[in-house]
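ugh ok fine here u go
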Amino acid sequence: MATALSAALGACHVPPRPTQPELRNSSPLDGIPTGANATWPDQAWWTRYHDEDLNAIESMALAKSPDLAVARARFSQATKTVDIARSAGAPSIDGNVQVQRERLSENGLIPPAFLGFTWYTQGDIGAQFKYDFDFWGSHRADIAANVDRARAAAAERVTAANMLTAAIADSYFGWQLDMAHIGLTVESIGWQEKIRKIAEARVQHGLDPYDILHQADAGLAAMREDAATYKWNAQMRREAIAALIGVPLAEVPEFHAHELPAFTGALPASAGLDLIARRADIEASRWRVEAAMREIDIARAAFYPDISISAMIGLSAIDLDKVFRAGSRVVDAGPAIHLPIFEGGRLRARYGASQAALDAAVADYDKAVVDAAHDVAQQALALAQIQARRKERAGQIEAAERLYQSSLARGKRGLTDARAEYNADLELIRQHDADTQLVAAGLSAEIALTKALGGGYLGDPNNNNTASAGASQP
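structure:
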């Protein structure tokens, strides 16, 4: 009867349960062009480039990166909080052994003269059992909240790995672009040196003014400066990769320069519907919403009476020689009910704070979905633009090739000197260099789109996108 009365009295002050928030189940990607055969990235998406050097540094980064070490530590910490929450709701048994020497006051309640002694030694040995009945689901909600936070930490770890692998691949192909620049620049320097020799000869024979030679020298110096810049950039990219992996530069494997691979990335047709399940950061935000709902359940359960049972059995005596005698036994057992009546608004304040935390978690989730859609749209449009520019660049390369063939034919007929042929060669090299730069930009956009699409992550298909309260609550 006392329990029923306490529960009824406490329930009169319990705030109503909030409605479950409806979370977005699709991304706003309408109007963004998609690819007919576009597929979602695989978990090890970088292997599609068939580059052993890239595969090696990606594997090294996943094993050694300090950023991933931090993410793993956070996940481990989150899983330990689950164990703590589970143990909080379990029965507890505490043992106690105490020996205390005490002097009685001669002016106290019981004078020593009445007892016949002034000093005595108190010895206590006991074990205490306590169990808190989780009638209102507070412990269950606490466990569920910590499980949800651990799931969020696991998703955040995947997000960190996705960002790391994308950054390394982007830097690696940037290094390959620098090496391509160096090769084309060295080739250009060779043609420019030939042009300078012709200019020098013509100046010496009085056919051209010195300005022609100066122009050739200036062009040659600019090309050599470009070559030095590209070499420095390549070195800096290797240093950046070493920093991402978390190792000294000397431990980064040597790279082998080769032609940049083709890029074919496009937005999958189902991106608007499936992106939420493919982005680990969105998944983490959703788990934080779930955890916030459990925190509200915990705050509501505090309004109800807390019912527990405890028992103690032990030995106690003021003479240590008699502690282990049968007459020194002490036993204590019984239930306890704690009912909050006047708590100065503390419970309502905690409930209000948990409600505000839920609203913030829902807002963060919505923002994560919108930001993810914006990221995907931006990278998909950038990739489409680069693909269109490459088509136009192909026309320029074809025109430069025709110019080269024409200048070569005129030189063979003696209509012009070799400078026309060499300049046509330089123009053709410049066009190929510009096309190579577009390929590298396309690879960078493809990698960014891969990261924006979740980098191969796939959430639990059994989880819907509507936050649920989890633990059964009154």
